[in-house]
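Worked problem 6 (solution included).
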Amino acid sequence: MNIKQFSLWLQSHKSIVAVVLFLTLLVAKFFWPFFLYDVPLGYDPGLYRYLFLQYTESIKNLELPELLPWASEHPPGLFVLSAPFIIAGLPVDMIIGWMWNLFPIILISTLALIIARREGKTIGICVLLIGLLSQAYFDGFFAMYMKAYVSLFFTILTYYAAEKHSFWLVPSALAAVMIHQQTGLILTVSLGIWWVLSLKRSWSDKKFRRITYVLGLAGALAVLWYIPQWERAIWSPLKSIILLRGDNAPAGAFPATTFYVRTMGVVLFLGIFGIVVSFGKERGSLWQLSVLVCAIFIVFRLVFYRRFYLQLDFFLMPFAAIALVWIWNTASSRWAHSMLLLVLIGQAVVGFQAMELRKPRFGTYELSQISSLPEHIEPDASVIALENISGMWLRGWLPLHRIGAPGLFDYPEWSYADWELFIDGSNEQRRTLLEELEEPVYFLLTPSFSRFYGSRANAIINDPCLRVVVDAPLLQSVCSQD
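Solution. The predicted structure is:
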């Protein structure tokens, strides 16, 4: 094949080539941490592992698990849906391993397919490109916001079904709401507004009326689903939205807005511009309303407003793709196209540099230490982490033991002042706190512990009430109750 023939083939197959290219780059982007670090990502893999195992074991007996209050705050949808697969033999470590690396690619590909059917093939392909360039989408993946991503998957299926007036929107909407409260809130508000706006023009449609009744029933079922954890999972977050705003609102773990303006400013500009362009075609779509709901939380700095960066970025992707195609078609000169390509390449370079900032806070060595702990402790032993990073990993890899950590779990029942006394107090003060606990009690020693406390760690290690366990990263309490 000569150059001319190859050029003609490329021209006739450019869509397929673009899809293959973008998917290949997406695989490279989301799988490089898997091969580079060889450890589950994020802050919560231990939490996910623990909840997957708890729900699986209970559902084997056709019941839901009895969880402590901190664990019951997490919606059960993802864990209930996953339980049959784990029971059938799917390893839970595979779910928080390579399957998690694959899921963002599945999600963005599903979004691209839906948008391609809605807006056209070219715009759908450009969604893949925008997903490749997005830093917020990668940050959410690296932090392992698994519930949010799975809920977003069911949310876009709901939107697709809703616009088709398909009954499939009911189970997909229920799944989204029952998997993640925040994404479920975006879906509920957006779909509710869109449905009300559609009543006048669509009420004569019998299918639309039936779906309306079914949605009302589904809403009632969702309320019943959350009743067991109503106070901590529903009422408390809603009350926080009303009472916690501005400087009083906890921001959430995402970086500041300025970080995303610097690292993905081109993508944000395209998304905002695409919203404006889309108003020429339609107003009040589910996609537009979702952007609006996310923007309200961010602009007014409502509770955990930075967590909405992920969803805002995700729902802006189709509009960024619309803007990209509009600019390409409107500025049709080669010079303009070259400039646009250079801008996109520059955005990709900045995004790659920002990706390099993301490194796991927990390593394979520390995880192997935790995995080996059952060989050194009694089956009824309690293990307490002395800093917040290790606690979640302990919880996931020692699911049958009682686990404690500062501010994370309900054990031990120490206040913040009690923890300060244990870390920086005298031997007598530590002894008083340890006497409240029933043996056997161990404290975890990891590199995270040493990094967090520095020289202050020596006072704990050398305390007479704590004995170093041979061949294990543990201190055993010798002052607790027999």
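Discussion: The longest strand covers residues 382-385.
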